[in-house]
Amino acid sequence: MRISFFAFTILAIAISDVSAYPAVPSLGELQLIELRKNSLDGDHILTRAIRYGGSAHSGNSGDANGGAVTNSGSRTGTVSNDGAGTSTGGLGGTTRSGSATGGTGSGNVSGGSATSGNAGSANGGSVTNSGGTITNTDGANVGGNGGTSTSGSATGGDAGGDAGKRAFEGELVNRASRYGGDASSGDADDARGGRVVNTGSGSGTVTNSGASSLGGTGGTSTSGSAQGGSGSGEGSGGSASSGNAGSASGGSVTNSGGSISNTQGSSVGGNGGTSRSGNAVGGDA
To answer: Is residue 276 part of a domain?
Structure first.
């Protein structure tokens, strides 16, 4: 049987198509196919990829200072404070910023960061006397004690990605970088004891007797702790930074004038309080 040149050409093309090697998908294509096959639908994988843990930030707290006392006489006049509880600065209160906790990542994403706000001051009230002659007796003229200033703790969210729940995602997920959330606690402000200032004239007299003119005791200033979130896969653990603690100094006593007399345990500076910064712990990788 004779075969035409045209028929021979068609037969050669057909044989060539049948014997050609099939296209081999790349590793990335295979992984994507596997992920899509095991997800609820083709777009579900994209939905999981953007669900990050929410960040958290607490606001700053305001001041809680004790009230000040000011007695101002004339240059030739007299200021006299007699008896315990007279001319006493108010006590510092308590000011604390709230804690902040970043959300945990869902699926295979990073945890949210957390930042707590700064705490306000909690200083004891000061006492100021000015005039020609100043007399403080029997426990009068006392600066207020410092209160408590504390910033809240901060905890970064852990990265998502549970190997047990996501085992089907295989090596692609294990190589993903899912970072733990950073954590930063706010600064705590001062909690100083109230100071006492007696300012007489150049020719006047300042007299403190009977445990009068005492500086206030320092309070407590503490910054919150910071805990970085744990990383997942090849992601790093979150960093942690604790805030600064403020001053908790005892109140000072200042007397100035022509003549100054302090007797019976008077004009004593206040004791210092406690100032402490919080612990900072970086998250595990």
So the answer is: yes
